[in-house]
Amino acid sequence: MDIAESLTRKGAAAVIVNYSRSADEARATAERLEDLGCEAEAVAADVSDDAAVRRTAERVRAAHGRVDALVCNAGTTRWVPFPDLEGLTDQVWRRLMGVNLMGPFYCARAFAPDLRAARGAIVNAASIAGPRATGSSWHIDRVGEQVFSEMAAKEELKAPLRRTARPEHVAQMVTSLLESDLVTGETLIGDGGRHLGY
C-alpha cells in the first residue's frame, strides 16, 4: 500500500497524484484510488519549477476548494563516489537541490494559504542521506535488479528489526503523522533501526 492509498483508506475525499516523468504510473494510481471511492487526478508538475507548482496549487484550489494535507514525496539522487568531487557537476547539483530542497519549499509556499485555512499539515519524505552522511543511494539501474536485491537483503540483516522500509511502511508513517494533532517539526526515521549502525 502506498501513501495515496493509505490516505484514501483513512477517508481522504480527493487526492492529487503529482508526477514529472511517470505518467502511466500516476494515472494507474489515480484509477486505483477512484476504485476505492476517492476523487483522484494525476497532475504533471516538476516540483523544482516554482511556476509549475503554483499552477498545480491553483488547479487544486479551483477544483476542490481546500487542502488538508500536503505530502512532499518527490526525490532524486545521482550516484557519485565520495572521492569523485568532479563527478558532482553543477548540473547534477542544481537538479538535486531543485527537487530535494527547493521542491518541498515551493510546494509549501504555494499551498500555504489553503493549509492555513484548513489548519492542515505538511509531511516531507526524504532519504536517510538527509540526516546521515551515507552518500548516494543504491540504484537498481546502476547495479541491476539481482545485485540490488542482494544488497537490500544484506541491509535488512544489519537492521535491528531485520527489516527496512517498504512503501507500506512509509505510508503508515505519513498517515500517522497527519493524524497527530500535536506533532510538528519532528524528524521520524523509519528504517528498522538501520541508522543506529551508521
UniProtKB/TrEMBL annotation:
UniProt KW Cytoplasm keyword: no
InterPro entries cross-referenced by the UniProt entry: NAD(P)-bd_dom_sf, SDR_fam
Swiss-Prot/TrEMBL keywords: Oxidoreductase
Source superkingdom: Bacteria
Family: Belongs to the short-chain dehydrogenases/reductases (SDR) family.
Protein known as: SDR family oxidoreductase
